[in-house]
Design goal:
Number of strands: 13
Oligomer: single chain
CATH topology: TIM Barrel
Radius of gyration: 18 Å
Order of helices and strands: HHEEEHEEEHEHEHEHEEHEHEHH
Helix content: 25-40%
Distance between the termini: 25 Å
Strand content: 15-25%
Length: 337
């Protein structure tokens, strides 16, 4: 009820203003954020990708791009947090307006464009946080780095975050950085994963521990692309796939006033397509690589559908914006069953 009232007020504001205000307000609550409604049932612990998760319900990347609100978000009862996407150098992202609500569909369209403070500042923010749970860091490339040099940016980010992250996510699936999704092609992805996994091996020797490395993919993949990516993930011993990012498809919101806005669509309309891609990866991989299900989760039943489709862990974002902390507890309870 409390979050519902707050959401009504926040939804009267510009979406990006409301986003920033919500996070600042949450941060001001500190440890009291735990009282916002996630519930007392902490869910069932899960072991995956070599890590122990207090529960299987995590926060997806994109909400806290710069790692500025880790402690406040960590108090809400998530089993793990993922921050970013971060790039080597700071960048402002795309021009505003770049964030649009579609409340009739419980959806959002964004074309943020990896706006972030850069890897050095993000690492400083992580170092200041008291949170000691599972923390993923999602990495990408700067908008002005040529696609043929993209590996340089991923390696720079990996170097910067390796010792601070519980796991690292290679994001090749945002629709809001020009040509980024070209990295999902077989030749480009094979080359990128070769470089990233070699650097991971070198960093593991330096620090004396191996950080899991995950790959985040788009929902807009056909069967042949899914099969090709699955083969490369097995070939390079990637630790898990996160399925999926936002979609460029608009069939589910056809006729809405924001239908033609460029960017990625997230929220309830993404659930079916995202879960289908997740299921296809599960079949292609045959249990050899764990999957993280994200996209369109707005209820405990939706979270359960991701697990039934093959996910070991799930992540929330847009559903969390529409439902608030109560969704965390609902999803935890559904997965505990």
């Amino acid at each position: 009820m409390l979050y519902s009232l707050a959401r009504t007020a926040l939804f009267r504001l510009d979406p990006e203003v409301a986003h920033d205000l919500s996070l600042k307000s949450l941060s001001a609550l500190g440890a009291s954020a735990a009282l916002l409604g996630a519930g007392a049932d902490h869910g069932a612990p899960v072991r995956a990708i070599g890590l122990e998760f207090p529960n299987a319900v995590g926060l997806a990347a994109g909400l806290d791009k710069n790692g500025e609100y880790i402690d406040a978000l960590g108090a809400l009862g998530f089993g793990f947090l993922e921050i970013g996407t971060v790039t080597p150098r700071p960048q402002p992202g795309n021009p505003r307006p770049r964030l649009f609500r579609l409340p009739e569909h419980e959806a959002i369209i964004n074309r943020m464009g990896f706006n972030n403070v850069g890897v050095e500042q993000l690492v400083r923010n992580v170092e200041r946080a008291a949170f000691r749970g599972v923390l993923g860091i999602n990495i990408g490339k700067n908008f002005d780095t040529p696609i043929e040099r993209a590996a340089d940016d991923y390696l720079a980010c990996l170097d910067g975050v390796y010792d601070k992250a519980s796991y690292v996510v290679v994001n090749i699936s945002s629709p809001n950085t020009k040509n980024l999704r070209d990295l999902q092609s077989t030749e480009a992805l094979d080359s990128l994963l070769s470089a990233v996994m070699a650097r991971r091996a070198a960093l593991a020797r330096r620090y004396g521990r191996t950080r899991p490395l995950l790959l985040k993919v788009a929902p807009d993949l056909d069967r042949s692309q899914i099969d090709a990516i699955a083969k490369l993930v097995v070939k390079h011993a990637v630790d898990a796939i996160i399925a999926t990012n936002t979609t460029v498809a608009r069939e589910a919101v056809k006729g809405h006033r924001h239908e033609l806005e460029a960017g990625g669509l997230s929220g309830r309309p993404l659930l079916a397509a995202s879960t289908d891609v997740l299921h296809r990866f599960a079949r292609a991989l045959g249990g050899r690589v764990p999957l993280v299900g994200v996209g369109g989760i707005h209820s405990g039943e939706d979270a359960r559908a991701k697990v039934d489709a093959g996910a070991t862990l799930v992540q929330l974002y847009t559903g969390f914006i529409y439902r608030g902390p109560a969704l965390i507890g609902e999803a935890r309870r559904a997965l505990k069953k």
